[in-house]
Automatic annotation (TrEMBL), chain A:
Its cofactor is thiamine diphosphate. NCBIfam families: PDH_E1_alph_y (TIGR03182). This is Pyruvate dehydrogenase E1 component subunit alpha. One of its GO terms (molecular function) is pyruvate dehydrogenase (acetyl-transferring) activity. Residues 375-402 form a coiled coil. Tetramer of 2 alpha and 2 beta subunits. It comes from Coffea canephora.
TrEMBL record, chain B:
Its cofactor is thiamine diphosphate. InterPro entries: PDHB_mito-type, THDP-binding, Transketo_C/PFOR_II, Transketolase-like_Pyr-bd, Transketolase_C. One of its GO terms (molecular function) is metal ion binding. It is an enzyme of class 1 (oxidoreductase). Residues 41-216 form the Transketolase-like pyrimidine-binding domain. SMART domains: Transket_pyr. It comes from Coffea canephora (Robusta coffee). It comes from the Eukaryota. The pyruvate dehydrogenase complex catalyzes the overall conversion of pyruvate to acetyl-CoA and CO2. The pyruvate dehydrogenase complex catalyzes the overall conversion of pyruvate to acetyl-CoA and CO(2). It contains multiple copies of three enzymatic components: pyruvate dehydrogenase (E1), dihydrolipoamide acetyltransferase (E2) and lipoamide dehydrogenase (E3). This is Pyruvate dehydrogenase E1 component subunit beta. It catalyses: N(6)-[(R)-lipoyl]-L-lysyl-[protein] + pyruvate + H(+) = N(6)-[(R)-S(8)-acetyldihydrolipoyl]-L-lysyl-[protein] + CO2.
Length: 444, 371
């Protein structure tokens, strides 16, 4: 079980052979951006945009303070670009259709979550419900680049990931109400959204549990291409998880294996700075999560997760890398959740000033502002979308309300895919001998 | 030679559907002109051949675990597979049980059929979150949307002098969890048949082997060597028929039970030995029918006594056949201590043949019950 030690130079050497073009690429973001608001005091703030590629990781082997030369170099280039061009106003990053799509998706996420809160306090929803308000830019920014066949694996804060991936709002709402028309027939609940059709592989309650599952889905994609010879299989997997998870063993195990086997996966960290009441800075020895990527031989990127356009740029690059077979990427999105950890959390430990600061960077208002300033949409169009989404969410609630509760017989169903759980009999067919198999002593 | 003929047959039936093993065996016999004399193979070879045939038949089956590739398996169970199938189907993993087990579960959620090998099931405790929470529960949580056709296999239970952290038996832990199927083979026939079924099964299967059994040889018939040979899950086997006392056991303890039965024969007690084969689902009907016949029960297992497999069997029999029991159920299990290292203490901590014999005598009122 001894780890083999290797020298720093050997490490970087071997990786420079495989290194991506990222060494020569300029930083991802256009220099001046109308969305650039007052920088937060967060360590990895919008100022320090850093794409740390493997070959530049030589710097990390020599002891340096946080603000390493590699990062400074990048921001200098940014400053250069800033002075060079003022192009953003005349050259928007998105088309009108894309803008409207992004807006609609984010508003759907926001309205849905607000409605969830209302329904919870009315007693229609119960148990643990974790809301995504404020983080919509991450979900929308990434998932809107995926195809249906690409996979998403999430945590317990998965309603909006499900919606962005395409699971109908009706199905998600019914699932939350515990009705049989839900996407998992009411058997999963808020924290366990699964959809085979949309390739949403959950929905996991344990932090870090979804990361190996996502890595496995990426492994499948690579296996399909190389062993089963399905040449056009370039499916990418996205694993979403939080800042606390980045201290968990499974996270590191998967970074290692994903980089080792060059799996088509993007590890998306939704760093909202808080576990429940435990601040990220109190829990982590080095709070800059993006740095953990290069330690395992993959690029680590930090991005402002309150800005959907910036997230989109990074997502495009990271997903593109994975699709081309260049391996995994670790993307740290600095974001914030406007509500408590869950609906049971009174949210008393967070500083109201901090909350206000992030509320002013609301991704939906920011995108709205951007679209107005670049004449991509009118007030009326956006209001029409708002109204449409409101109606959609109301309809989802009505549908969920009217849906029936699961039948009693559903209790014992779906424990096994093999319907009676008996495997193969000597006659070669599945045994269905003991109908009492899953009943135990329960009387249904 | 047999192997070659089986392979040819397997190839011609494009993957070997799990049907009509008897017909196939007859065809085999005709084709090869051999008598149906039995052959002896080691459990290790039986497992290896099962893995080999299933990987040949279905390209989505792959093996992953520590040392399964270049080292040919920590216990040489995957010997020759790397050479045959390549490193992408026989994947050597880093020492990261939680990580690679989760990767296996994720791959099986998405269409492949992994076999995750644990060097021993003690190490699987680092991955037990994935075995229970993501493998066993996913089909239920997703209401049948996503099934997990994965096999977790490896040696379980005590070996010889390996100490407390390498000797625990996990049959009771895994079998208490709905959503898992738990199998424990004893002979080569069990090993082959159950492993093949496990790999073909669409649900998560925990396959508990035994390190000390790997090197033991058992006679196998032609039928067993056929590439479509499968044993049903949830069916126990009566290894030896009897009328005086029922002895249930699984894995290595079946051998002990059989030896005990031989000794009891000399005292005019005919024991019926049941090889459980499948711990979850437990073959309650077969056990209960046997107890109805003999009226006395002794359960034997290697694991810790509290909440063990024997406890479940006892409860099942008491619930269904209380009036048929002529004596209290005797449970033989490992001692209620972590496994000691010293050889004599280890012998005391594990069930021995004499313990089974004594328990059977007590159940038959041939000796005074212990306090």
């Amino acid at each position: 079980m001894a780890a083999t030690a290797f020298s720093a130079s050997k490490f970087t050497q071997s990786f420079s052979l495989n290194s991506t073009r990222s060494v020569d690429r300029p930083p991802l973001f256009p220099a001046s951006h109308p969305l650039k608001t007052t920088p937060s005091s967060f360590l990895g703030s919008t100022r320090k945009l850093s794409l740390s590629s493997p070959s530049s990781s030589t710097s990390r082997h020599r002891r340096r303070p946080c603000r390493s030369p590699a990062v400074v170099a990048v921001s200098e280039v940014v400053k250069e670009k800033k002075s060079k061009s003022n192009v953003s106003l005349s050259n928007p990053l998105i088309t009108k259709e894309e803008g409207l799509e992004l807006y609609e998706d984010m508003v759907l996420g926001r309205s849905f979550e607000d409605m969830c809160a209302q329904m919870y306090y009315r007693g229609k929803m119960f148990g643990f419900v974790h809301l995504y308000n404020g983080q919509e830019a991450v979900s929308t920014g990434f998932i809107k680049f995926l195809k249906q066949e690409d996979c998403v694996v999430s945590t317990y804060r998965d309603h909006v990931h499900a919606l962005s991936k395409g699971v109908p709002a009706r199905a998600v709402m019914s699932e939350l109400f515990g009705k049989t028309t839900g996407c998992c027939r009411g058997q999963g609940g808020s924290m366990h959204m699964f959809s085979k059709e949309h390739n949403l592989l959950g929905g996991f309650a344990f932090i870090g549990e979804g990361i190996p599952v996502a890595t496995g889905a990426a492994f499948t994609s690579k296996y399909r291409r190389e062993v089963l010879k399905e040449a056009d299989c370039d499916h990418v997997t996205l694993a979403f998880f939080g800042d606390g998870t980045c201290n968990n063993g499974q996270f590191f195990e998967c970074l290692n294996m994903a980089a080792l086997w060059k799996l088509p996966i993007v590890f998306v960290v939704e760093n909202n700075l808080w576990a429940i009441g435990m601040s990220h800075l109190r829990a982590t020895s080095d709070p800059q999560i993006w740095k953990k990527g290069p330690a395992f031989g993959m690029p680590g990127v930090h991005v402002d997760g309150m800005d959907v356009l910036k997230v989109r740029e990074v997502a495009k690059e990271a997903i593109g890398r994975a699709r081309r077979g260049e391996g995994p990427t670790l993307v740290e999105c600095e974001t914030y959740r406007f509500r408590g950890h869950s609906l049971a959390d009174p949210d008393e430990l967070r500083d109201p000033a901090e909350k206000a600061r992030y509320a002013s960077r609301d991704p939906i208002s920011a995108l709205k502002k951007y679209m107005f300033e670049n004449n991509l949409a009118s007030e009326a169009e956006l209001k029409a979308i708002d109204k449409k989404i409101d109606e959609l969410v109301e309809d989802a609630v009505e549908f969920a309300d009217e849906s029936p509760l699961p039948a009693r017989s559903q209790l014992l169903e779906n424990v096994f895919a093999d319907p009676r759980g008996f495997g193969i009999g000597p006659d070669g067919r599945y045994r269905c001998e003991d109908p009492k198999f899953t009943e135990g002593t329960a009387q249904v | 030679m047999f192997g070659i003929i089986s392979h040819k047959l397997a190839a011609s039936t494009a993957g070997g559907s799990p049907g009509q093993p008897i017909l196939r065996a007859a065809v085999l016999a005709m084709m090869s002109n051999y008598s149906t004399a039995t052959k002896q193979i080691m459990v290790r070879e039986a497992l290896n051949s099962a893995l080999d045939e299933e990987m040949a038949a279905d390209p989505t089956v792959f093996l992953m675990g520590e040392e399964v590739g270049e080292y040919e398996g920590a216990y040489k169970v995957s010997k020759g597979l790397l050479r045959k199938y390549g490193p992408q189907r026989v994947v050597d993993t880093p020492i990261t049980e939680a990580g690679f087990t989760g990767i296996g579960v994720g791959a099986s959620c998405h269409g492949l059929r992994p076999i995750v090998e644990f060097m021993t099931f003690n190490f699987a405790m680092q991955a037990i979150d994935h075995i229970i929470n993501s493998a066993a529960k996913t089909n239920y949580m997703s209401a049948g949307n996503i099934n997990v056709p994965i096999v977790f296999r490896g040696p379980n239970g005590a070996a010889a002098g390996v100490g407390a952290q390498h000797s625990q038996c996990y049959a009771a832990w895994y079998s208490s969890c709905p959503g898992l199927k738990v199998l424990a083979p004893y002979s080569s026939e069990d090993a082959r048949g159950l492993l093949k079924t496990a790999i073909r099964d669409p649900d998560p299967v925990v396959f508990l082997e035994n390190e000390l059994l790997y090197g033991e040889s058992f006679p196998v018939s032609d039928e067993v060597l056929d590439s479509s040979f499968c044993l049903p899950i949830g069916k126990a086997k009566i290894e030896k028929e009897g009328k005086d006392v029922t002895i249930t056991a699984f894995s290595r303890m079946v051998g002990y039970a059989l030896k005990a039965a031989e000794i009891l024969e000399k005292e005019d007690l005919e024991a019926e030995v049941i090889n459980l084969r499948s711990i979850r689902p437990l073959d309650r009907s077969l056990i209960n029918n046997s107890v109805r016949k003999t009226n006395r029960l002794v359960t034997v297992e290697e694991g810790f006594p509290q909440h063990g497999v024997g406890a479940e069997i006892c409860a099942s029999v008491v619930e269904e056949n209380f009036n048929f029991l002529d004596a209290p159920v005797e449970r033989i299990s490992g001692a209620d201590v972590p496994m000691p290292y010293a050889a004599n203490l280890e012998r005391l901590a594990l069930p021995q043949v004499e313990d089974v014999v004594r328990a059977a005598r007590r159940a038959c009122y041939r000796s005074v019950p212990t306090a």
